[in-house]
Design goal:
By secondary structure, this protein is of the alpha/beta class. The protein has 10 helices and 14 strands. Bound molecules: pyridoxal-5'-phosphate.
């Protein structure tokens, strides 16, 4: 039996998508094999790949002067691919430090280019995100990199910054949660395993003019322009994950697109934060203006009860609520495929646990 799954990633996938994939698993469209077992250059797979790309372009209203790449290596690979491509021009790049993932991006970029940390919330334990108004952008930097949703701390920067510089966003845990003005960015990357599909696929949305500025002296596998000119088939792409992402994109469209998910996701997050704020048994430590709509962190006032909470939650059908080991407490990741009902049931369980242990 499937349970309410609050995993931060790899995360819940819609049951409708899984059912459809199941029905096609042994044989895809009468070709005598599954989609996993055929060439990525076959007409059948090329059609699947192109349809997925077109649907993503539709959903996010990606302008024509951008390309969409379907890569491997996870968002972590982008931590180095970005500076390898763009860190050479001017030899420096601006980074915002707002949580664990931006810290990792900075560590990797520092091996490749000079990194300026232009704003940081580290001394406040990443309990808020530096406001773009306060970022000390350098005139000579090649780009500004930030993470709009820090998955581990549950800290978000909700509005794209208004900065006259190429902006690069690690949107791994927030992409497709609501509409996004792609024009504000030169490059957006995201590991698939939250709102897009299974792990193994990384989406890159890149402005074509910006892409042309990329360093040509690096290996092809690292060059955005090579991946783009080969339609993300420079080498064998993650075909099954790509196919599944296509199913998720169709499902997003059928549900009503990103406007629908914006409404749903804000409703889910508001309900949960409201409940936590009212309680003296649970608490959330993130500045209200920076609270994530995808990853809701919360703590039990008495952390001696953490283990009991998690055990009982699991017994009652709520999976993966443990906070990241570096932060402790709890985290409910409430991505697109986790319905409002799941959050309502979680609140009922949290109320019940409080009444038995408060
Ligand atoms: C915001 C963010 N960036 C980067 C990563 C790293 O992604 P991957 O494991 O796909 O390399 C994650 C993973 O959860 C993430 O949440």
């Amino acid at each position: 039996m499937r349970k309410w799954n609050f995993c931060a990633g790899p995360a819940v996938i819609s049951e409708a998508v899984l059912e459809e994939v199941k029905s096609e698993l042994l044989e895809f469209k009468k070709i005598g094999a599954s989609i996993m077992e055929i060439s990525h250059r076959s007409k059948t797979f090329m059609e699947v790949a192109e349809q997925a790309k077109n649907d993503l372009v539709d959903i996010l209203k990606i302008p024509k002067n951008y390309d969409v790449l379907f890569l491997q290596g996870g968002a972590t690979h982008q931590f180095s691919m970005v500076p390898y491509n763009f860190g050479h021009s001017n030899g420096q790049a601006d980074y915002v430090l707002s949580g664990t993932w931006s810290k990792k991006a900075i560590a990797e970029a520092s091996k490749i280019t000079k990194v300026n940390i232009i704003a940081s919330s580290e001394t406040k334990n990443f309990s808020y995100a530096p406001d773009p108004k306060d970022w000390r952008v350098n005139q000579n930097s090649a780009y500004v990199h930030y993470c709009p949703n820090e998955t581990i701390q549950g800290v978000a920067i909700h509005e794209p910054p208004d900065i006259n510089k190429p902006i690069i966003s690690d949107a791994s845990s927030v992409i497709l949660s609501e509409p996004l003005d792609v024009n504000k960015f030169s490059l957006i990357y995201a590991g698939a395993q939250k709102n897009i599909g299974p792990a193994g696929l990384t989406i890159v949305i890149i402005n074509r003019d910006f892409m042309e500025l990329g360093n040509q002296q690096i290996p092809n596998i690292l060059k955005y322009s090579e991946h783009s000119s080969s339609n993300s088939m420079l080498n064998t792409p993650p075909t099954f994950a790509w196919y599944m992402a296509g199913k998720v994109f169709k499902w997003i469209k059928q549900c009503g697109g990103l406007e629908y998910f914006r409404e749903q996701n804000h409703a889910k997050a508001s309900k949960l934060y409201e409940f936590v704020d009212k309680s003296s048994f649970y608490s959330n430590h993130v500045d209200i203006k920076n609270r994530s709509i995808m990853n809701v962190t919360f703590f039990l006032e008495n952390d001696q009860l953490d283990t009991a909470f998690l055990l009982e939650a699991e017994k009652n059908g709520f999976l993966n609520l443990k906070g990241h080991r570096s932060v402790g407490g709890m985290r409910a990741s409430i991505y697109n495929a986790l319905p409002l009902e799941g959050v309502e049931e979680l609140i009922k369980f949290m109320t019940y646990f409080e009444s038995n242990n408060g």
